[in-house]
Amino acid sequence: KEFRLLANIHEDLIISDVLDQFRTFCLIEKYLQTPTLLAEQWTFQITSKTQRLLVAKYYDFDDGVIREILGKKLSGRNRKDLDDVSEKTNVRLKSCRRQFDNIKRVYKIVEDLSGNLVINIQTHFLLPENLAKKYATVVYIANNRFETSKRKLQYLKFDDFLHCAYEMMSNWCCHNPECRFEETAMDMDREFLQMLRELKILTEREYLDDHKLHVMRSLKGKISERVLADLDTIFKSLSRSIINIASGLNHSKEVRDLFLDVVEKVIEPFKQIRMTKTDVELFITNYTEIPRSLEPFKV
């Protein structure tokens, strides 16, 4: 058998080295599944920098694959269905399974921990902050069983859910380790949810009319007359929808359908009257700030 020289190195040596690398990886993989052990083991002499690189590469994932997994139960049955995910995303099945298993592993470790979810993941898996943030949003969505696969949600990318879930974790969860209700980092703050229920008063006719009057007045001259007129027409139904979504977060079924409800009952009405992003931002800002000056909420 003839062998070639590649960059003055015998081909046989290159093949042997590659095989050694594969064998070494198979031995290291068990440590990668529990990254804190990788730094403690003495079998493989690996620098700290290389250890961090290995962990980051092993836990890295494809946004397209995670978008398909997002919101699904991390069960053995769904793991078996990854063939479809592999075909749809053009990512090898073995890689899809690794990504699925990594998410499940992270979820199992942090599901009962209190405190900051991102920090918990960094502590136990030694991931870089940006990657830990991504895992935090994925396990947060998995824990709350948010519906993400309905047809009306298909246009949303992983980054869209990443942004929304991170905002929810940052603003809707109790970050105090001594939480009154002993919530985990993946639970919504119950005191916050109770406060949302108090917003129901804004659906009562007297306060709804007052809220509408002040919001529409504040938007005059800031958005087009056409949009303002259309917004005036849908304001009451839109406001009821927003408040019902918020107050309904006390119930698991309503939580599960949060993204779907927001798209159907808030985003689509905005689209129908052709509001721009700036229009929506102005509306939301005024809509949320004005109740502070209304009678039921005055301090």
The spatial strand order of the largest sheet comes to 1-2
Structural class determined from secondary elements: mainly alpha
Helix content: 55-70%
CA distance, first residue to last residue: 88 Å
Domain unit count: 2
- Please state the CA-atom Rg, rounded to the nearest Å: 25 Å
Q: Report the portion of residues in β strands.
A: under 5%
Query: Can you count the helices?
Result: 16
Number of strands: 2
Q: What is the typical, i.e. mean, pLDDT?
A: 90
The shape, in one word, is elongated
What string gives the helices and strands in order?
EEHHHHHHHHHHHHHHHH
Poorly predicted spans: none
Give the biggest beta sheet: 2 strands, antiparallel
InterPro entries: FIBP (IPR008614)
Keywords: Membrane, Transmembrane
Pfam families: FIBP
Protein name: Growth hormone-inducible transmembrane-like protein
